[in-house]
Structures are given as C-alpha cells and as structure tokens.
Write a structure and sequence with these properties.
heterotrimer; A alpha/beta (253); B alpha/beta (240); C mainly alpha (217); A: 253 residues; alpha/beta; D-Maltodextrin-Binding Protein, domain 2; 2 domains; five-stranded mixed sheet; three-stranded parallel sheet; 40% helix; globular; B: 240 residues; Rossmann fold; six-stranded mixed sheet; four-stranded antiparallel sheet; 25% strand
Chain lengths: 253, 240, 217
C-alpha cells in the first residue's frame, strides 16, 4: 500500500523531528555542563572562525571552566534571542560584549565589569566627518544594531539635552548590515562598541568621528539569582586585574 | 406483498407540505414512472424513499419492513436501492472502474478481483466496458450516465431509482440512455423513475404515478392517462 | 576566502534549514487537516471554537508567538526545545492558514457526489475519507505549495531560538569577513535552490496522485 507507506514514514519523520529537536543534554558523570548563549557577530569579544567560537569573552570564560572543571555547551542566537535565553534561564550565562545597563539589570544579573568599553561613532574616512562636540550631531544619520544599548543611552542622555532623538536612528539586524550601509553612503555614522570598532578599523576605511568614554562597561550576563555568577565573580578576583588586562590587550591590539 | 409500499408519506418544510400524503405500491419486477409539474414533490419523494431526506410522517415499507421507524438499518436499506442522479454524480477523482467497484469493495467487502468482475459485467451491459480506465472528465453526458447506471446496478439492488436521468442530456444521448434503461425494464428490473420526459416514460414503464401539489393525483397506464379529459394532466403534457 | 568556500560554510546551515522547514510544514499539514476535518464532522460549537482559533493564529505575528513559546513558557514551568518551539509557532500559524485553504477546497467539491455516496450507504466518515479528502487534497495543491514556500521563508527566525540554520551562518560570516554582498547573494542562491528542491518533491507527489481532467469543469 504505497499511500500508507508515505503516511507512515511521514508520521515517523515528524516524530523524530519533534524528539530530535530536544537536543542532547548530557553532562559527563563528573564534569558539569554550562549552557552558554552567544551571538557570534561581535568581534573581538565573540565571533566564529572556521566553525570555532573564539574571542576575548570566550577566553575569559574558558579560563573559568578550566579552573572549575566544567565544559561549555554553546548555542548561537541572534542578539535578542541570546538575551532572552538568559532571562528565561534557558542559558546559564551569556556573553558577546554585552553592556551593563539599568534596564538589563532589572531582568538579569551581571558579573563584575570585566572591561571598559568606549562607544564610538564611526564614519567613512573619505567623508572626513570629525565632531569636536555634539552640537552638530543631529545633522547626521546614525545607524545602530537592534537591541543594543545605544537606544537607551540616546533616550536617557541625549534626547533630554536635545542632542539627538531616538526616532532619527536607523535600525539594522546587526553591526554588519549597518556598516554595509555606511559603506554605500546610506547612513552617515554608525554606533559601535570600541572593541568592535577596533576590529573593523583594520578591515574597513573607517575612523572615529566621536568617542564617548567612560559610560559603558561590559559584563557577563546571568539569570537572576544565579549562583554561577557569584562563583564567576570570585574567579575574576582570583584571576586578578593584570592577567585580565593581558587577555584584553591580546585581542584589542 | 409489494416490494415497496408507500403509505401517506408527508414531508413538510416550515409549514409547507411538499409531500402531502403520498401513497402507492411498487411490485417486484414492475416499473413505474413518477411525473408531474414542477414543485409537485417528485424529487423529494425519491429522496425520502431512501431516507436521504427524513419524512415528516407516513411509512415506507421495503419487503414488508417499515424503514421509517427508529432503529432501522439505513445503510443496509441504501445498499438495496440503486440511485441514479440527474447529473450523474460520478466520483471525478476515480476511474470508471473504481467508481463502479467502490461500494462493492468498501460496503460489501468484496475482494478486488471479484468486484472488478461484477463491475465489468454491469459496464458491459451498459456498453461502457472499454472505458474502464477512463476518468469521468473524459466522458460525454450519455457515457457518464451509463456508468452511473452500471454503478447502481453493481450492488445488485432490489430496486433502481432514477432521478430525471435524461434531463441533462442532449437528444442523441437521451436515446442511448433510454434504450439501455428500456433493456433493464425488459429484464424485469424493478424501476422507479422520476422524469418529465414522456418519451422516456413510454419506453420504460406501463404505469405512471402522476403527482400534483404533493399528492398522487392519478395513477394509471400511460395511454389511459393521456386519454383522460383532465385539465391538470393536459396542462402538463401540453396537448390533449 | 573564495566564493566557493563561502558557499561551503553557508551550506553547513542548510541541513538545519531543511529540517526546520520540513518539521514546520509537516506540523502545518497535520494541524490544517485536523482543523478542516473537525469542522467538517463536528457540530456548530466545534466549528465556532475552531473559527476563533484560526482567526487568532492567522493574526498573531510569528515572532511574537515564538518568543512566547520559547522564552515565555519556561516561566510557567514548561521548557520547550527550540525546534518544537518553531513547530508550535510557525507550524501552528501555517496550519491555520492551511485549514482555510482546505475549507475553500472542500467547498469546490460537487455536492452531488457527496449525495451519491450517501445514497450508496456510506457514513459521513466514509464519505469524508473516500470522496471528500482525495478531492480536497488535489484542489489544495497550489495553496499547499504557497504555504510551504512561506514556511521556508520564515525559517530564519529559528536562529532567534538558537538553531544554527543558514542565516546564522551568514551573520557570523559577515561579522568576520565583512563581505556582506557576496554572502547575502550566496544565501539567496541557496534558498532558491532549496525552494526548487522542495517544489520538485511536491510536484513528484502531485504527479503520482494526479487524475486526468480532474480540475476541469
């Protein structure tokens, strides 16, 4: 009965898909598995090369796991998915150059800040846009990646001062798309983390038009009430500031 | 005991009696035609007889058993009545052969080979055996109706109901179909046929049940009816 | 990195794209059929409930539903794996649309054929299975192909719940190589190829069950 075979194999495949989608949740008998959420689109903090997850944040957490004897199970999400994963406790930790902000602190716990991050407004070298101060900022279009912390900053710091408005922003799925539009002239400036800017400066003819210092610090994100966070903070203390800076320097240079 | 006995059959729709106390009998081997002006209730009558429409009151006896009482086996009843529709109603997603064998295989659980043999026998009788693998879309009206008749005959029914079997056909096809139904009539198949086609009526039966406004106005041999000096009957047939 | 190498890396996500598309489309088919059949066989009450269901699922944005299922449900203790979350959101929404396709297809069936089946003695269930369903499915082919294409085009949302399908590969690659145009052109080609593949598969099934002259009046 060919039709019955078709229906039967269909049903079996459907069942497999539903079950297979459950994924493997195995820890070794002795080593603990930590569910990690990342967005591999933020070099040098977190990116993918040849199928391997790499980056500054990865090295830091890898050091933690080696010290504590656990292994990482890494799942890649888009930016909002990554944050959602840690809020809903699907992930035990998330890192990809996440800025510590007040709204985020309401729904997740951050580790101690592990590095300072400047916020750079970059533009194409060819256009030679250099802002001595923020008075003329509103004459330019600014592109940002969705879900990033710049929106809040503009809303709470710049808009009240009349420097810039949130609705003037152009939103993009990730930094990459914003930079593509920068290159083809569709947007004047792009907001990038200092870390990210350092990477792209090597690849694209861009320069800093204005740099906001001292407002942003990066942290590892954990679900609220996470014990892992407490232990990770302890590890950061054990690691010490010199060793930590060494790792940062390795990636930022 | 007649094969089919209809007693005081009533069907009302919201206060209006489409059938207003119809009574007649049909003997085994007999062929009767039901005729009458539009709205006289003839199609409703046919559909009440196999309970496609639920009668409001009255009784219908098939082989002496009242099928209108609650608990009657409708499925068994319907397999003993063959029904041929005006618009053929062939299953267009199935071949001619499959159309004819469907009920045999699914209702009577006849194995495929035997079912196909019986089907081909009936198709042959209707001169459609060579079209066994064709699909309904490829058939003419006359061919479709012949397949429909074969489909009804395949279940070996006690009686064949025809609902305006030639009304959707052009004159040439009408002649094909009439000839074949005539053949059934001559074979003593029990037939009840609703139609307004006098030519068909004359070829397939002796007696006409003339319906008017939901009642049996007259029942008689055709030639007698035509000779009657009756305004209603004359009105229907056109000329005296 | 040559264009070929780009393609190779992107294709690593193709398996997931196919898995997601197939699972969600299959779910949609099951859901759509269930709703259509229930409306055929059930009474007025069931039909009313299902009408409301279809209305809701056709109106809710897929991403919102996905978020609710995947990120929201753990809040009430229900932990849903990512593929299942996709099936419950994209699959169910597509299923609602499919049920409407089926409803239209059922209306195209000649009621005399249904009457003939009843006159033969078939029950409502048998009539549904032997007469209505085969015809409904054949009439629904264009609508089903449409939904399949839509499911394929919504599959990238799976990245939001952590499934590494093609779009994720693309985003990660663009971040490190900055060759946005080439990469997105490559993805476009791959999606198109997958679309053609699915189409051929569906056409194959369609041919197997085709009835000559079926849809002509």
């Amino acid at each position: 009965m060919r039709r019955r075979d078709l229906i039967a194999s269909f049903a079996i495949a459907l069942a497999f898909a539903a079950v297979g989608g459950c994924g493997k949740q195995e820890g070794g008998a002795t080593s603990k598995v930590i569910n990690v959420a990342v967005t591999p689109a933020s070099p040098p903090n977190l990116f993918e090369e040849n199928g391997q997850t790499k980056g500054l944040d990865y090295d830091l957490f890898d050091g933690y796991c080696k010290a504590r004897g656990c292994t990482m199970a890494i799942t890649a999400y888009d930016w909002q998915g990554m944050l959602g994963a840690v809020v809903s406790k699907k992930a035990d930790v998330a890192f990809s150059g996440i800025s510590i902000t007040e709204p985020r602190k309401k729904v997740m716990d951050f580790s101690k800040p592990y590095m300072d991050n400047s916020w750079n407004l970059v533009s194409m070298k060819s256009r030679n846009i250099k802002l001595a101060n923020l008075d003329t900022l509103k004459n330019y279009s600014i592109g940002i990646a969705r879900g990033t912390a710049y929106t809040d900053f503009i809303k709470t710091e710049l808009e009240p001062k009349g420097i810039y408005k949130v609705d003037q922003l152009k939103l993009y799925p990730t930094n990459s798309e914003a930079l593509t539009d920068l290159q083809n002239g569709q947007v004047d400036l792009v907001f990038l983390d200092g870390t990210v800017a350092s990477v792209y400066r090597k690849k694209l003819p861009i320069q800093d038009s204005y740099v906001f210092e001292g407002i942003d610090r990066l942290g590892f994100a954990f679900p609220k009430g996470s014990q892992l966070r407490v232990d990770f903070d302890k590890y950061l203390d054990e690691l010490g500031p010199e060793k930590r800076q060494a790792i940062i320097d390795k990636w930022m240079k | 005991m007649a094969l089919l006995e209809v007693k005081e059959l009533v069907k009302s729709y919201g206060g209006r009696n489409v059938l207003d106390g119809v009574s007649f009998d049909l003997e085994e081997g007999e062929a009767k035609v039901v005729m009458g002006p539009s709205g006289c209730g003839k199609s409703t009558l046919l559909r009440c007889l196999n309970l496609l429409i639920e009668p409001t009151s009255g009784s219908i006896l098939l082989d002496g058993k009242d099928i209108t009482r609650p608990g009657a086996d409708v499925r068994a009843l319907r397999s003993r009545i063959g029904f041929v529709f005006q618009n053929f109603a062939l299953y267009r997603h199935m071949s001619v052969l499959d159309n004819v064998t469907l009920a045999l295989r699914r209702l009577k659980k006849v194995p495929r080979r035997e079912a196909e043999e019986r089907a081909l026998h009936e198709l042959d009788r209707m001169e459609m055996a060579d079209k066994r693998d064709a699909y309904p879309a490829a058939l003419s009206g006359g061919q479709s109706q012949r397949v429909a008749i074969a489909r009804a005959l395949a279940m070996d029914p006690k009686v064949l109901f025809f609902d305006e079997p030639t009304s959707a056909l052009d004159p040439i096809m009408v002649r094909e179909v009439v000839t074949l139904i005539n053949g059934l009539y001559l074979d003593n198949v029990t037939i009840l046929c609703v139609t307004h086609d006098l030519g068909l009526a004359k070829h397939i039966s002796d007696r006409v049940v003339f319906l008017d406004q939901g009642r049996v106005y007259a029942e008689d041999l055709i030639e007698n009816l035509l000779r009657r000096d009756d305004p209603v009957i004359e009105d229907f047939f056109g000329e005296g | 990195m040559s264009f070929i190498e780009i393609l190779q890396i992107l294709l690593q996500g193709a398996g997931y794209t196919l898995l997601i598309t197939f699972s969600c489309a299959a779910t949609a088919l099951v859901v759509g059929l269930a709703i259509a059949m229930a409306r055929e066989l059930g009474g007025a009450w069931i039909s009313a409930v299902l009408s409301a269901w279809v209305y809701v699922f056709r109106g809710v944005p897929m991403l919102v539903l996905l978020f609710v299922v995947f990120f929201g449900l753990p809040g009430v203790g229900l932990d849903v794996p990512p593929l299942l979350a996709m099936m419950l959101s994209l699959g169910f929404i597509s299923g609602a649309y499919l049920s409407e396709v089926f409803r239209g297809a059922l209306a195209a069936i000649n009621p005399n054929e249904v009457l003939a089946a009843q006159a033969m003695g078939f029950t409502r269930f048998e009539t549904l299975r032997l007469i209505k369903l085969p015809q409904m499915l054949r009439f629904s082919v264009p609508g089903m192909i449409n939904e399949l294409t839509t499911v394929l085009k919504y599959s990238p949302f799976a990245y939001t719940v952590g499934l590494p399908e093609i779009t994720k590969q693309a985003m990660a690659l663009v971040a490190t190589t900055m060759r946005g145009i080439e990469i997105y052109v490559a993805i476009g080609l791959i999606y198109f190829a997958i679309y053609r593949l699915l189409l051929s598969f569906v056409r194959l099934i369609e041919k197997r069950y085709a009835v000559p002259g079926f849809a002509e009046e």
